[in-house]
Amino acid sequence: MHTDPTSGTALPGASVRLRPATGRDADFLADVLLEAFNWNGGRFTSAEMLRMPHIAHYVTGWPRAGDFGVVAEDDAGRPIGAGWARTFPADDPGYGHVAPDVPELTLGVLPGHRGRGVGSALLDALVELAARSSVGLLSLSVEDGNPAVRLYAARGFTVVGREGESDTMLLRLAGAPSGRLEA
User: Fold this and answer.
1) Cα angle 151, 158, 2; round to 5
2) Alpha carbon separation from 85 to 114, 116, 181 (Å, rounded)
3) Structural domain spans, the chain
4) pTM above 0.70, yes or no
5) Which of 28, 29, 30, 143 is paired with 22 by a 20 to 30 Å CA distance?
């Protein structure tokens, strides 16, 4: 099912709705970022994470020009997951940095809501938003062992690089140039 994140579309078979991420969601995006970094255990607290510029830059000043994102809410209107994309300059790259004009996405679903299609719906909505915005490429970083890699691969992301114990993955949207990327 194609979702329209701008219209608060309900997901089939679930009491979950998607809506655009706004400036009011900055704190929740930080919570999701913490979940994304702590996917395999608690290695950071929120305060620690936000003191690290190379991590905090994923949410600092949300939203900046060019940022786009989606929040999933339960039937009571409580946010349960989010996905967003933002570009980073070459001198302050994200973990999944490919090029300064390629948005890097971050995605996470709160514990207790995983395995129900929320992450898939968020990712599909982000890809749709990127395509509508004439974004040709999306990148991300995924650590070894993270089960989300299956979702990314199923949606067409391919490994284009490796840093430490993480793969950088790239999705080429319809109409994107097919030449070699200059990172």
Assistant:
1) 45
2) 20, 22, 19
3) 17-172
4) yes
5) 143
pLDDT tens figures, 84-119? 999 999 999 999 999 999 999 999 999 889 888 999
Residue with tokens 């704190």: 27
| DSSP symbols for 74-117 | -TTS-EEEEEEEE---TTS--TT---TTSPEEEEEE-TTSTTSS
Given the DSSP bridges, would you call strands 79-86 and 104-109 parallel, antiparallel or unpaired? antiparallel
Are 153 and 49 a contacting pair, CB within 8 Å?
Answer: no
Handedness of CA 137, 138, 139, 145 (dihedral sign): negative
From the CA atom positions of the chain, what is the Rg in Å? 15
* 17-172 to CATH, choices 3.40.50.300, 3.30.530.20, 3.40.630.30, 3.30.559.10: 3.40.630.30
Quote the CA–CA distance of 122 and 19 in Å, as a whole number.
Answer: 10
Binned at pLDDT 50, 70 and 90, residue 1 comes out as very low
In 3D, which of 139, 130, 133 has the Cα closest to residue 160? Answer: 139
